[in-house]
Here is the input.
Amino acid sequence: EVQLVESGGGLVQPGGSLRLSCAASEFTFSNYWMSWVRQAPGKGLEWVANINQDGSDKYYVDSVKGRFTISRDNAKNSLYLQVNSLRGEDTAVYYCARGGWYSDLWGRGTLVTVSS
Amino acid sequence: EIVMTQSPATLSVSPGERATLSCRASQSVSSNLAWYQQKPGQAPRLLINGASTRATGIPARFSGSGSGTEFTLTISSLQSEDFAVYYCQQSDNWPRTFGQGTKVEIK
Here is the structure.
């Protein structure tokens, strides 16, 4: 089945770090731009970051620049988001999504909760 | 940053009626506009890309139009499964930005 499965979320204290992962299945992962999109509880969607097919091009929303790093391992069909210096406003479900212009495949998301 | 503004925030519609959702960009995004549907507890689903191209498997009752700064998503005859939140998203510039969403609820 063509799918994306996120993992790595959890409860973390302010200032802490996590590494989110996204495993891709049944499509040629290396052919696609990939995205991370987040959604705070009860709020709308917020695009976080994009990465191109070979990882040489990366874009971030201003609010996470310098704190979050998107990366990928095409040999492992995996996308990552290293999230550092976490703040309360980073609390959200983080979705992995296929595509850099529009996203036609989404994972179910992983919840990151930043709280002391 | 391009600001996407959706209206109305909530749309109350009876099943079988037509729903018209609007999305406005703070500057031209050409046709680089997508629409997504999200139901409670689920991931978003792509409906429309390129402002007017239906994604794979999307019923013909969903249609998108517009270019530049003004866009519309029309659901011609609402079915029970269409009650959800709808988001527009521009991909003309970085950062990609979403509208705040329109909730389509049962009247």
